[in-house]
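I hope you will forgive my troubling you with a question about protein structure. The full record is reproduced below for your convenience:

——
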Amino acid sequence: MYLKHNSFGDDIPIVIVLKAMGLESVLVIADVVDDNLALASRNLANVLVIEPRYADPLSLVYYKKILVTKAAIEQLKEMFA
C-alpha cells in the first residue's frame, strides 16, 4: 500500500508515512495484505495490518487510529449488509 501525492516523485509506503507522523497506535484495514505490507508493518510497534474479514470490535476499540482503504470499506459494507 503506497501513498501517492503530486509533490512526491515516487510512491511512498504507507507504513513509512505512519512512522514519520508518529502515530503510535494504528489499525490498518486493507483490502489485500500482501507480503510487502505485512513485512513492513511488523517492524512498527502498535501497528496492526489486517484484511476486513479479520476486523473485530475489540480491535476497533483498542487502537487509537484506524486507517481503512476505499476497497476495504466496500468489502466491509458487503459483509455487514
In short: Strands lie at 2-3, 12-13, 26-29, 47-50, 65-68.
